[in-house]
């Protein structure tokens, strides 16, 4: 039987050992009372390691690195402060690799912290806001500690938990974290209109994180019978389901279901997903599976980037020398969309960032996506479909979608490549 914890007696030192690696759900799925207690009790635990996803809180701060080694696949949110302070180590791997890395022990998880929705009449606890890489961690963790939150949405999914699966339970009734609602500007809306014009009715969408994918969702209100198979979904997807734009009725796989690994949105999204049989949460094993993606006809992968070079190489990780993004799942979905019958692998980005061009002769950071995986690059100035093009042909197409003030310089730079 699971040990019952309380806020007054929330002692993690009997459950976590020195040298342990601790993992929890990212974004809104973070079990905040447990993670805050972990940080507060770090001096009593001995040195440990924490595997971080995208944070929507500041529970992990640079000063906590005195006793904790932080590792993450991304530099988003509060992770940027950790990275700037030299307190964050980066794990550069495709998102699809996480499950096998965890199962094999290459990425060891000793302690798993979860936020769960209360058990239903059948005694099933729902993982609520995230499935993703939590499922393989459940298979390998020595200790599973759950915050059972009365306010967490109960969602349908690939797996449910029972009390026997848990070593300790903390009951709470706090409002789960919320993801900030992004408000796309004129630039993002212009790009989104171009992307939306490429999408046929009946397509299935994968949506990356950021203002441009959110703007694309808003630009799809005139479409019909769209589907969703995505690592994350937000409020915009819920709005399109309510409007009847997203029906999932023409999906090749999972017909009638919106499939996602993580819910990243507001309280309105949480309410919409609660006991909603149209939304099905799945693990990374499924959402990022190359065979599943290739088998989904008309899969449109929509992601963004920091910069793209003239040959189609994409940097989605660093800007101005700072780690701010991720390798993540973009390559998984771009490759899946390329193999999908009628699929579209799309990278959309503004042509500039401040005074600098984001279409460049040479990347300033790592190659997150190799040029062999590039598909359609979209800016506010046009669409460069790089599929089937030689390097020389790609240069011309990429210069054409750059900001006009940088095209002459890009022409000169291209001549010396």
From TrEMBL:
- Which GO biological process annotations does it have? acetate metabolic process
Q: Where is the Acetyl-CoA hydrolase/transferase N-terminal domain?
A: 55-173
Give a yes or no for keyword Transferase in this entry. Answer: yes
**GO terms for MF:** acetate CoA-transferase activity; hydrolase activity
Sorted alphabetically, which SUPFAM superfamilies does this protein's record hold? Answer: NagB/RpiA/CoA transferase-like
**Any single Pfam family the record assigns to this protein:** AcetylCoA_hydro
Which positions fall inside the Acetyl-CoA hydrolase/transferase C-terminal domain?
265-414
Which keywords does UniProt give here? Hydrolase, Transferase
The UniProt family comment states: Belongs to the acetyl-CoA hydrolase/transferase family.
Q: What's the protein name?
A: Acetyl-CoA hydrolase/transferase family protein
């Amino acid at each position: 039987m699971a040990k019952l914890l309380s806020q007054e007696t929330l002692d993690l030192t009997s459950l976590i050992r020195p040298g342990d690696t601790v993992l929890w759900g990212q974004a809104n799925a973070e079990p905040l009372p447990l993670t805050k207690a972990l940080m507060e009790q770090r001096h009593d635990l001995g040195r440990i390691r924490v595997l971080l996803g995208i944070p929507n809180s500041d529970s992990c701060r640079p000063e906590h690195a005195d006793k904790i080694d932080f590792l993450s696949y991304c530099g988003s949110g509060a992770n940027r402060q950790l990275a700037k302070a030299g307190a964050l180590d980066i794990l550069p791997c495709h998102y699809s690799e996480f499950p096998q890395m965890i199962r094999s022990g290459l990425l060891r998880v000793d302690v798993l912290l979860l936020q769960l929705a209360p058990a239903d009449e059948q005694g099933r606890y729902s993982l609520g806001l995230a499935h993703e890489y939590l499922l393989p961690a459940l298979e390998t963790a020595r200790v599973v500690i759950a915050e059972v939150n009365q306010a967490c949405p109960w969602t349908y999914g690939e797996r449910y938990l029972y009390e026997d699966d848990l070593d300790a339970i903390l009951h709470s009734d706090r409002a789960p974290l919320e993801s900030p609602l992004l408000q796309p500007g004129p630039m993002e809306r212009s790009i989104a209109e171009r992307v939306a014009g490429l999408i046929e009715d009946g397509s299935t969408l994968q949506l990356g994180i950021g203002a441009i994918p959110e703007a694309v969702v808003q630009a799809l209100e005139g479409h019909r019978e769209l589907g969703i198979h995505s690592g994350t979904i937000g409020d915009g997807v819920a709005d399109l389901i309510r409007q009847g734009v997203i029906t999932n009725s023409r999906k090749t796989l999972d017909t009638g279901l919106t499939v996602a690994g993580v819910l990243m949105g507001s309280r309105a999204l949480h309410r919409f997903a609660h006991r909603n049989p149209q939304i099905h949460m799945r693990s990374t094993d499924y959402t990022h599976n190359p065979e599943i993606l290739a088998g989904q006809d008309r899969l449109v992968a929509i992601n963004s980037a920091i910069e793209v070079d003239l040959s189609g190489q994409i940097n989605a990780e660093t800007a101005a020398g700072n780690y701010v993004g991720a390798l993540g799942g973009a390559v998984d979905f771009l490759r899946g969309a390329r193999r999908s019958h009628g699929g579209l692998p799309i990278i959309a980005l503004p042509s500039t960032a401040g005074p600098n061009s984001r279409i460049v002769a040479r990347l300033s950071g790592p190659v997150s996506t190799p040029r062999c995986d590039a598909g359609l690059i979209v800016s506010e100035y046009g669409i460069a479909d790089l599929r089937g093009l030689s390097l020389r042909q790609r240069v011309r197409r990429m210069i054409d979608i750059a900001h006009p003030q940088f095209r002459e310089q890009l022409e000169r730079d291209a001549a010396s490549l």
